Amino acid sequence: EVLLVESGGGLVQPGGSLRLSCAASGFTFSNYSMNWVRQAPGKGLEWVSYISPSSTSIYYADSVRGRFTISRDNAKKSLYLQMNSLRAEDTAVYYCSRGVPAAIGYFQHWGQGILVTVSS
Amino acid sequence: EIVLTQSPGTLSLSPGEGATLSCRASQSVSNSYLAWYQQKPGQAPRLLIYGASSRATGIPDRFSGSGSGTDFSLTISRLEPEDFAVYYCQQYGSSLITFGGGTKVEIK
Description:
The complex is a heterodimer. By secondary structure, chain A is an all-beta fold. Chain A has strands at residues 3-7, 10-12, 18-25, 32-39, 45-51, 58-60, 68-73, 78-83, 92-101, 109-110, 114-118. In chain A, strands 2, 4, 5, 6, 9, 10 and 11 form a seven-stranded mixed β-sheet that branches. Chain A has a four-stranded antiparallel β-sheet with strand order 1-3-8-7, with no helix packed on it. Chain A is globular. Chain B is mainly β. Helices cover 0% and strands 49% of the residues of chain B. The termini of chain B are far apart. The mean pLDDT of chain B is 97. Classes of the chains: A mainly beta, B mainly beta. At the A-B interface, strand 5 of A face strand 4, strand 5 and strand 10 of B.
């Protein structure tokens, strides 16, 4: 069974930083692209970032480029999102999601999500 | 960036009725790389359709997707009580992935 478990969320002040982690199990992590998707309270889904299986291709949404950094550790089967210069509008539930092997694609598996609140 | 516009915003229907949801793209979605997701309150989204018309594993055949280019649709042939939820389309034909704003299917 594919499992994705996010951690590292919480309350942070504007301008602060937070690092999200996603622990993966139940599949060969190093074969799959991974993504972060977020959802602000009461709003729709917003794709945040993509990373290819070997980290050679990385993409970001315009709203986070230059502030967020996606990374992965295939040996630890883990995905990360380093979030800097956080703003109130970054408040959202952040989902880790598994893409398809070696390409940008759809999201077949999702974590349960982790809440990030940016507020003073 | 490809903008996806979903309509209607809300669909009020009764169980047993059929539903057709629309997703229109601001430019052509390459290779029909269009997916549909269902989301219920407090839950993560669930993949229903990928490649515009391929059902994901375990998805009932009352769900079907169609379309190409800039116009796509999701059809639910007969609504079951568990189908009342919010539905999102997503394009993955470019390196900037985008989602539509969602269509809520509610019980009339």
